[in-house]
Design a protein that fits this description.
Number of helices of chain A: 6
Order of helices and strands of chain B: EHHEHEHEHEHEHEEHHEEHEEHHEH
Structural class of chain B: alpha/beta
Number of strands of chain B: 13
CATH architecture of chain A: Alpha-Beta Complex
CATH topology of the largest domain in chain B: Aspartate Aminotransferase, domain 2
Distance between the termini of chain B: 33 Å
Number of domains of chain B: 2
Mean pLDDT of chain A: 86
CATH class of the largest domain in chain B: Alpha Beta
Largest sheet of chain B: 7 strands, mixed
Shape of chain A: globular
Radius of gyration of chain B: 21 Å
CATH topology of chain A: Sufe protein. Chain: A
Strand order of the largest sheet of chain B: 2-8-7-6-5-3-4
Oligomer: heterodimer
Shape of chain B: globular
Largest sheet of chain A: 3 strands, antiparallel
Distance between the termini of chain A: 67 Å
Largest interface: A-B, 32 and 24 residues
Low-confidence stretches of chain B: none
Number of strands of chain A: 3
């Protein structure tokens, strides 16, 4: 049986992660968001809620709530910072690697926390686009 | 302010313990199996530690074998007894809430053809005597149960279990992992009917890398490692003499004024519990209250928050604690102990364990009670999970 070596780096956070955990950016509820999306499950130990305000296909504001570890909170801060001011399409092109790189890397075991923020973003964008093509409040408001 | 409340994980070496150890690294460095005076000096020191530890649990000196850790003592006790009694039986009983150093060894035994039953516990972590009695068969050779749950502080009815095992037709050996109990609750191997018991030095202000196995005289056991002879037939290899000296000295200090130390820890435990219950809503206590709880253990779930975030925020405020949250471990699963007592995973993720030592003070607890409610409140503000709904 091959021995699995435990890496210290599996649990060690970068300064950037700790900094964003200590002073998270864009955290809290948002009034009148264009999209609100929840991913994850408290049973599994992390849950992520993202609010986007979108005006003319541009993300003008992004906020989040987190039930999760430091990696989850830091990733939420990084993701929301990265997408603010971007068009919905450009925000949709952001990769997990870019988010993790922005944090100076994440411990191997914590990559799933980055995935959660990323998945929430993808879902939010999908929901926004579906809402638009399905003739929802955005288009009905205009008529 | 720095407050260390993770004494259940490890403790700092006491200054007087370190002072006692130091000469055994340098001038008194001899190998204890050799007849020249340097060797005999080391052997005498090892024997003094044996005698000291034996006295604290009402054992005989020769019944103490030093190991490298309580983990190794558990392994030696469980596999050693299982192998030596294999002809007579192949059934081992333990509980669902044991330390991994017991559970993993039992799983290994299962691979080797032994049968192991993992007893359930009630919502406070207690093993049921009736449940145990029902599980015993004619093939049962060993029962292994921790005296105190290292996680939720439950003090198991060891004396009643020992008595029950002695009443059985066949001889069933009783192993007790007492790493979390030693120097926190009184232990008497005679009165409690304990045949084997694991202890650890670094949980009582001794050094890391030293444990001990109490082995009742005439208990059949096989060594599980082989090699160079030592003072201990079960544990080959050169003895960690400075570590053993440190363990003996740590035991001496822990038991010199034992009742006062325990009284002090219990007072601080109760202050911490009362303070948390008064200041933080939506919490859940894990483990029992009062005399059946370790005087050194406090464990609550703070609903709606995740344990690792709490742990890191407390750390930023100088407070060290442990969490049962999955996120803080390498396995990403909530604690098996909390699962066994029926705690929902979403609540288990917010479990925080505070463990005391005799060195903690009232001022430290006051400070913790000032910081904890603030940290929990702040984390709840940014959580999408409503604590009142869990």
């Amino acid at each position: 049986m091959p021995v699995e070596f435990t890496e210290r780096s599996l649990l060690k956070y970068t300064q950037k992660v700790i900094e964003l955990f200590r002073n998270p950016k864009n955290i809290g509820e948002m009034e009148n968001p264009t999209v609100t999306t929840v991913e994850g499950d408290p049973q599994c130990g992390d849950m992520f809620k993202m609010y986007l305000k979108i005006e003319g296909d541009k993300i003008t504001d992004a906020k989040f709530l987190s039930f999760g570890c430091a990696a989850n909170i830091a990733t939420g801060s990084m993701t929301t910072e990265m997408i603010k001011g971007k068009t919905v399409d450009d925000a949709g092109k952001i990769s997990i690697k870019e988010i993790a790189d922005g944090l100076g890397g994440l411990p191997g075991l914590k990559m799933h926390c980055a995935v959660l923020a990323y998945k929430t973003l993808k879902k939010a964008i999908q929901e926004y686009k579906q809402g638009k093509s399905g003739g929802d409040q955005t288009s009905s408001k205009g008529s | 302010m720095k407050v260390y409340l993770d004494n259940g994980t490890t403790t700092p070496v006491a200054r007087e313990v370190l002072d006692a150890m130091l000469p055994y690294f340098t001038e008194r460095f001899g190998h204890p199996i050799f007849v020249y005076s340097l060797g005999q000096e080391a052997a005498d020191a090892v024997e003094r530690s044996q005698a000291m530890i034996a006295r604290t649990v009402n054992a005989k000196s020769g019944e103490i074998t030093f190991t490298s850790s309580a983990t190794e003592a558990n392994d030696l006790a469980i596999r050693g007894v299982a192998y030596a009694n294999r002809k007579r039986g192949d059934h081992v009983i333990t509980t669902k809430i044991e330390n991994p150093s017991v559970l993993r060894v039992c799983e290994e035994l299962e691979k080797e053809g032994f049968r192991v039953d993992y007893l359930p516990v009630d919502s406070q972590g207690f093993v049921g005597l009736k449940e145990l009695e029902k599980t015993i068969t004619e093939r049962t050779i060993l029962v292994s149960i921790a005296h105190v749950s290292d996680e939720i502080g439950t003090i198991e009815p060891i004396e009643q279990i020992g008595k029950l095992l002695r009443e059985q037709k066949n001889r069933i050996y009783f192993h007790v992992n007492a790493a979390a109990a030693y120097a926190r609750v009184p232990i008497d191997v005679e009165r409690m009917g304990i045949d084997l018991m694991s202890l650890s030095a670094h949980k009582i202000h001794g050094p890391k890398g030293v444990g001990a196995l109490y082995l009742r005289e005439n208990t059949p056991i096989e060594p599980i490692s082989h090699g160079y002879i030592s003072l201990f037939t079960l544990k080959p290899g050169t003895e960690n003499v400075p570590g053993i000296v440190g363990f003996g000295r740590a035991a001496e200090f822990a038991f010199n004024g034992f009742e006062k130390h325990v009284w002090n820890m219990r007072k601080l435990r109760d202050k911490l519990m009362a303070g948390i219950e008064e200041r933080v809503p939506h919490i859940l206590l894990h483990g029992p209250r009062g005399d059946k709880r370790s005087p050194a253990n406090v464990n609550y779930s703070f609903k709606g928050v995740e344990g690792e975030s709490v742990l890191l925020h407390l750390d930023l405020n100088g407070i060290s604690v442990a969490t049962g949250s999955a996120c803080s471990t390498r396995k990403l699963e909530p604690s098996h102990v909390l699962t066994a007592i029926g705690v929902k995973p979403e609540v288990a993720h917010g479990a925080m364990r505070f463990t005391l030592s005799r060195y903690n003070t009232t001022e430290e607890i006051d400070y913790v009670l000032e910081v904890v409610p603030r940290v929990i409140e702040n984390l709840r503000k940014i959580s999408p999970v409503k604590p009142e709904e869990l």
